[in-house]
Amino acid sequence: MSIKNDLLLRTLAGEKTARPPVWMMRQAGRYLPGFMKLKEKYPFFERVQNPELATEITVMPLKEVGVDAAILFSDILVIPQALEVEVQMVPGKGPLVPQPIRSAEQVAALPEVDAADRLHYVMDAVRSTVKAIEGEVPLIGFAGSPWTILCYMVEGQGSKTFDQAKAFCFSQPQAAHQLLQKITDVTIDYLKAKQAAGCDVIQLFDSWGGLLSPEDYRHYSLPYLKQIAEALAPNTPVILFAKGCWYALEEMTALPVKALGVDWTITPQMAREFTQFQVPLQGNFDPARLLSPIPEIEKMTRQMIQDFGPYKYIANLGHGILPNIPVDHARAFVNTVKSFDR
Amino acid sequence: MSIKNDLLLRTLAGEKTARPPVWMMRQAGRYLPGFMKLKEKYPFFERVQNPELATEITVMPLKEVGVDAAILFSDILVIPQALEVEVQMVPGKGPLVPQPIRSAEQVAALPEVDAADRLHYVMDAVRSTVKAIEGEVPLIGFAGSPWTILCYMVEGQGSKTFDQAKAFCFSQPQAAHQLLQKITDVTIDYLKAKQAAGCDVIQLFDSWGGLLSPEDYRHYSLPYLKQIAEALAPNTPVILFAKGCWYALEEMTALPVKALGVDWTITPQMAREFTQFQVPLQGNFDPARLLSPIPEIEKMTRQMIQDFGPYKYIANLGHGILPNIPVDHARAFVNTVKSFDR
Q1: Structural contact between residues A24 and A286, judged by C-beta atoms closer than 8 angstroms
Q2: Do A249 and A211 form a contact (C-beta atoms < 8 A)?
Q3: Domain segments of chain B: what residues?
Q4: What residues in A contact B271, CB-CB < 8 Å?
Q5: Nearest residue to A180 via CA among A80, A74, A248, A76
Q6: A308 and A318 in contact (C-beta within 8 Å)?
Q7: Chain B residues touching residue A288 (CB < 8 angstroms)
């Protein structure tokens, strides 16, 4: 099926477009009143596992804020669930893994699984969403990086520093690498199934990459991202967003990815310097800056585009949108990009 | 009083020393069995406010791990307390400000205070510690950066992202700057009193600077750090550690500080490139890496010194030591630096 608004796909293919495409990380989320209604009615993983609900949530921001791409409503922690590791979502607290992985024995005991089968509800949601979008915009599917998934599986919950996860890697490196490889294998199967079900683009989130030193990133994250990117690259453009990993931008440029996401702690100019215009960049508006008055949002957004400009650029936030952003502020961000005149 | 082990002071003065000085952020803390005993007996702020306890805790790591400097056991949140903003320390949870600052009215209502008087117990602890150290090593006093203090005063608790604090700055910038200025004024008085009481070095912690964009850092943090550094510089060497602020290293080099701390997400080589050897650097061993086997700690520590080398360098961690670090691992880190042969 050809896609009407193909700005994102053309940018990922390296083409010059009349204006940059725009979408927002977590755009199908808690700042939308429609989402909040569903949140009151259905627990988190029910929204993820019910294809109709996931579809409804995924298409919401298309109508509400008019973004140039949809990103499937789902969660990176479906991967541990596929590996039979229980993950709960505790309201107001975030993810909880009641029995975190802490030993080589636990890693060895993880089952061999058919990810596409275990996570069939995600593929159902992809197919249902493709129908609902009716070819208007591309659909992005996503997964967490193996390092970031390990963080949750080992730490057992969210954390500022994921000390337990790092302790596991640094005191039991062999077990850590075995776990990373298992996550990688399952993630590749999962993402290939998402491709087959109809995702046009895949984004990889390395949300906790920025906790590692450049040297440790090279051992504990990059090789696994490389395997995933290589497995998907022949069929689908891949965007890699590794938060806080400015120091690895140069190395990430060498991966078979079609764009690199950057957060707001790096200037567009610096990001271009590290990546030398070899790959499109995506980002990097500080989500908290969407709380500024609208005229300031408009001014900062235009400045951001100019600083990244002129091409090879996907406008986005530097991380997920916050729950307390007024919808008209999000819309102001999107509309400023859409009205940008090269 | 002249100080026997003056490696840190000479390094801060720009002199070449036989080996780099070494100390560890949070060295007087939860990884020490002696500290844990006191922690069981006395609540957090009692340990801070009782000069005898603060002294006992401050000198502990001198005997236990043999560092080249003492850093006063205290807390950055004594500043809001001086401003009559209640701060509790909730065991297992961290700081809590029951009535966080959210409005211009609340900022305006903060009292004019004599910080040295309000925080007299800190000066008592400094004097008591100076006596206890008997001129063996220098004593470091510290404060949080105004931006970091604002984060806690506005957010009301610890956070990964301090969204409320940023929301306050970006939606009420005038009130935010008034608050930052009030914190700055009190901090300057407080640190001058600490100088007068006997601190040989002052370290400023900008723990949450890395949450800001380079542009916002230039507005919400740097100007206030500059005021503090300028006020203290004539009398005491200042070390500035701004976690996650690699992007501001070049600008920080222009401040009247005698050293800049860096975390482990920047390579020593990059940190030298940004600062051009104009100022001594301090850091940057990943605290979680102290969980590696001892031979690996020794190897990585030697590599770190070589990479920062050869002079203008203070060996330290890239952030505070973790509670679960075995004391002999901390000792291995310190001893490796002390036995380093240029």
Answers
A1: no
A2: no
A3: 7-338
A4: none
A5: A80
A6: no
A7: 161, 163, 166-167, 170
Assign 3-class secondary structure to A98-125: CCCCCCHHHHHCCCCCCHHHHCHHHHHH
Continuous H helices in chain A: 7-12, 33-41, 44-49, 51-64, 78-82, 104-108, 115-118, 120-133, 146-155, 163-171, 173-197, 214-220, 222-232, 249-252, 268-275, 294-308, 327-338
Backbone angles phi, psi at A324, to 5 degrees: -95, 20
A308: nearest Cα among A11, A106, A55? A11
DSSP 3-state of B204:
strand
Mark yes or no for CB contact B288/A160 under 8 Å.
no
DSSP structure class, residue A25: T
Q: How far off is chain A from B315, nearest CA to CA, in Å?
A: 16
What is the pLDDT of chain B when averaged over all its residues?
A: 97
A170/B292 touch (CB, cutoff 8 Å), yes or no: yes
Chain B residue set in contact with A, beta carbons under 8 Å = 158, 160-161, 163, 166-167, 170-171, 210-216, 244, 246-247, 264-267, 270, 286, 288-289, 291-293, 322, 324
Task: In whole angstroms, give the CA distance from residue B277 to residue B78.
Answer: 34
How many CB atoms lie under 10 A from the CB of residue B18? Answer: 9
Interface test with A, best of B164, B274, B291, B301 (most A CBs within 10 A): B291
Per-residue tokens: B314: 């203070």
Name the pairing type of β-strands B139-144 and B70-71. Answer: parallel
Spell out which residues of chain B touch residue A244, defining contact as CB-CB under 8 Å. Answer: 244, 265
Question: Can you tell me the distance from the alpha carbon of B214 to that of A221, in angstroms, rounded to the nearest whole number?
Answer: 26
E-only strand ranges, B97-175: 139-144
Residues of A in contact with B288 (CB under 8 A): 161, 163, 166-167, 170
Give the one of A160, A213, A286 whose C-beta lies nearest to B213's C-beta.
Answer: A286
Q: Cα A100 to the chain's mean position, in Å?
A: 23
- In terms of DSSP H, where are the helices of B198-238? 214-220, 222-232
User: Residue B129 to residues A92, A270, B57, B63, B139: CA-CA distances in angstroms?
Assistant: 43, 45, 10, 14, 8
Measured between alpha carbons, how far is residue B329 from residues B60, B64, B307, B335 in Å? 16, 12, 21, 10
Q: Which two tokens stand for residue A90?
A: 């505790």
Query: d(Cα A24, Cα A336) in Å, to the nearest integer?
Result: 13
Q: What is the pLDDT along chain A (342 residues), one digit of tens a residue?
A: 689 999 999 999 999 999 999 999 999 999 999 999 999 999 999 999 999 999 999 999 999 999 999 999 999 999 999 999 999 999 888 999 999 999 999 999 999 999 999 999 999 999 999 999 999 999 999 999 999 999 999 999 999 899 999 999 999 999 999 999 999 999 999 999 999 999 999 999 999 999 999 999 999 999 999 999 999 999 999 999 999 999 999 999 999 999 999 999 999 999 999 999 999 999 999 999 999 999 999 999 999 999 999 799 999 999 999 999 999 999 999 999 999 987
CB distance B213–A163 less than 8 Å? no
Q: Does domain A7-338 have CATH number 3.50.30.10?
A: no
Residue with tokens 């491709």, as numbered in its chain: A195
| Contacts with B153 (C-beta within 8 Å, 6 or more apart), sequence order | B80, B85, B97, B100, B101, B179, B183
Residues of A in contact with B212 (CB under 8 A): 265, 286
Residue-by-residue DSSP string for A57-89: HHHHHHHHT--S-EE----TTHHHHHTT---EE
Q: How many CB atoms lie within 10 A of CB B92?
A: 4
For residue A4, what is the DSSP state?
A: S
Instruction: Determine the pLDDT at residue A2.
Output: 87
